[in-house]
Amino acid sequence: MKAYHHGNLREDVLAAAAEAVASRGPEGLSLRELARGLGVTHTAPRHHFGDKKGLLTALAAQGYRLLAGRLAAAGDDFLEAGVAYVRFALDHPGHFAVMFRPDLVHGDDADLVAARTRARQALLAGAEAHARATGRSPSLTADALLPPYALLAWSAAHGLAHLALAGALGAMTQARSPEEIKAVARASLEQLAPA
After folding, report:
1. What is the pLDDT of residue 179?
2. Maximum separation of any 2 CA atoms in the chain, in Å
3. In which band, very low, low, confident or very high, does the pLDDT at 22 lie, cut at 50, 70 and 90?
4. What's the confidence (pLDDT) of residue 17?
5. What are the DSSP calls for 9-59, one per residue?
6. What are the sequence ranges of the domains in the chain?
């Protein structure tokens, strides 16, 4: 093994971990294999992440930041936020596989907590805009629980994302390409929106 000399090791390990988790699941992730694939010593990833759980925590935090950006880009369009959620899962399956698995991460990690909070705030902002537009509930605060309709919409988007990643959505709907899956997600989530 050669010594790793450029300054992007942390980002390179995260990218390699996302690919490995997407293809083999979080249980199949090995720090030694990642190091070997990157051409670094087996201890190099440990320098940045400590252990496998530390790496998965960083991967989940990165995923929440990416998701928050997607949700924020959807703006006040609650339906588009749901589609953006499914699109995120399709684009980042390795991140998605660890983000909602508290057993895999250090739940009290400050970076993870901040990133999760940012994603939650983006989701709440969309829910609040939807509530104002439909007259469903009063203004939400940053520490409010999701109202039932927002929880239902999130559950639907999350379920669609899981079904799509598992290949089950395509088997039930004939949607195969990412564009077809997004169209199915949009049509399904529209059913939750009031007329």
Report:
1. 87
2. 62
3. very high
4. 97
5. HHHHHHHHHHHHHHHH-GGG--HHHHHHHHTS-TTHHHHHHSSHHHHHHHH
6. 51-190
